[in-house]
Amino acid sequence: MKEEKKKSESWEWLKALLIAFGLAAVIRIFLFTPIVVDGESMMPTLENGDRMIVNKIGYTIGKPDRFDIVVFHAEEQKDYIKRVIGLPGDTVEYRDDVLYINGEPYDEPYLDQYKAEVIDSPLTEDFTLEEKIQSETVPEGHVFVLGDNRRKSKDSRHIGAVAIDEIIGSTKVVFWPIKDFGIVK
After folding, report:
1. What is the pLDDT of residue 101?
2. How far, in Å, CA of 25 to CA of 45, rounded?
3. Cα gap 124→105, rounded to integer Å
4. What is the pTM of this model?
5. I need a surface site. Which of 122, 150, 173, 177 has the fewest CB within 10 A?
6. Is the pLDDT of residue 92 over 80?
7. Beta strands per DSSP E along the chain
8. Residue 136's CB: how many other CB atoms inside 10 A?
9. Hey, which residues are catalytic here?
10. pLDDT (0 to 100) of residue 14
């Protein structure tokens, strides 16, 4: 009798552990995953070494919003973190350090700190989409992304438009280091 009870209890523990691992795997694969910021391309918004949560919900259907910070698979078997600037069908241009989307100027408050520190030239060099990706508009199924640290970012100006199906998810929550814990904009 005691042996049957031990086997039953062991089986219950094993089932509980398998369920826990299964749930953890489902959450990590389909809902959320951690990522570490590698480099300075998103400064001052994100610092090198920040640990963040990537929200995968919504990106399985491919609906990024303008100015989302997204994580995507890059050409070098590495994931990049950048900000969505242009959506499919948009025209994107920079003139005199001002972003124009579809001919309309857009404020980028997340760049204010860097713009105030730059004295020798504009933070973002002038360009048109055609100069960078050889297209007047962002192609269907793609987005145009830029790093917030415009002078030190390998982004769509260098790698071209990013396929929406390469986007893993968006990220807004820094969970480490504790001093930086919170939502980023």
Report:
1. 94
2. 30
3. 14
4. 0.77
5. 177
6. yes
7. 32-36, 51-55, 69-73, 79-86, 92-95, 98-101, 104-106, 127-128, 142-146, 162-163, 167-176, 182-183
8. 10
9. 41, 82
10. 74
